[in-house]
Amino acid sequence: MLEPEPVSAPASAIALHPGIAAVLVVHGLVRDLRPELERLAQVVGRIVLVDNNEHACTELQPLQHSPLPLTLLQGGNVGGLAGAYNRALQSLNAGPVPPREVVFIDQDSDSAVLARFLADAQVQALLARNDVAAVAPAYRDRATGLRARYIELGRWRAQHMQREFEGARPVAFIINSMSVWRCAALEQLGPFDETLAIDHVDTEHCLRARRQGLGIWVHGSHEFAHAIGQRRRYRLFGRDLQATGHGPARRLLIARNTLLLARRWGWREPGFAWLCLGRLAYEAVGILVAEPQAATKLAALLRGALAGLFTHRAP
């Protein structure tokens, strides 16, 4: 049963939530983060900034001496994004007062919606429930302007929801960026899988939550801008679709992880296995219709799929 429609706080309302910590992971070129960190410090009690570059980013070092409630960690890209999450959670749990919830934020996401999202009465009610793992606002892609299509997963089939909706709805999967997780649920689910590195790290954690009866929710009345790859919008058979624009190396990792998770979970979740096959087909169509280097990317997709089927390592 869906929750009743919330009475949201006004957009201008900013309240401090001392029991919530933010984990911000950065990699590659790093913009000036101080404005975003100062905004986060008005909303959450603690911030862990993970520099996940192979070599420490010198531009971030002065932030350690700022008055912000900030911990700077050097992730070194060990274990990819999953490794950064795990080290951040270890740091938070080692503190004198571990947080009640944690929000993961990607450097390509706009966190301006966070204050209003956390102030929403429906979000607060969901996070107070022991049968909820995480709640997230909906995301809209920066490049294409399309909102994500979330998935309802049954045992034998998966169904895509409408892009536009209001209020909170249970879904099968969310991206980690801008998602608020109950720390008790994260402890129950265990560490993020560092063998996946980047792609489907969040998918696998959502599957764990589903297996343990913990709900994943998206609130469609709140949304944030987010970038995944260099997406390109195209139309096929009268429908608006988007190709991710990832390069060959990332396409290989996507395919490897997609088939690896299908192997792990398909016998328990046949609907998810079919979804994985559909995801690879969608990737291939997007490459053919909307992207350059089609042959190279398709070859990488095939190599990754074979690695996911027959090995546990990326080739």
Overview of this structure, please?
The protein is of the alpha/beta class and 315 residues long. It folds into two domains: 18-226, Spore Coat Polysaccharide Biosynthesis Protein SpsA, Chain A (Alpha-Beta Complex), CATH 3.90.550; 232-310, no CATH class. Helix content is 35%, strand content 24%. It has helices at residues 34-41, 80-93, 114-119, 121-127, 183-189, 201-211, 248-265, 270-290, 294-310; strands at residues 17-26, 44-51, 70-74, 101-106, 132-141, 151-153, 158-160, 168-171, 179-182, 215-226, 232-236, 239-243. Strands 3-2-1-4-9-5-10-8 form an eight-stranded mixed sheet, sandwiched between helices. A two-stranded antiparallel ribbon has the order 6-7. Strand 11 (232-236) and strand 12 form a beta hairpin. Helix 7 (248-265) packs antiparallel against helix 8 (270-290). The longest helix is centred in the C-terminal third of the chain and has 21 residues, at 270-290. It starts with 16 loop residues before the first strand and ends in a 5-residue tail after the last helix. Residues 1-12 have low confidence and may be disordered.
Any descriptors?
315 residues; alpha/beta; Spore Coat Polysaccharide Biosynthesis Protein SpsA, Chain A; two-stranded antiparallel ribbon; 9 helices; 35% helix; globular
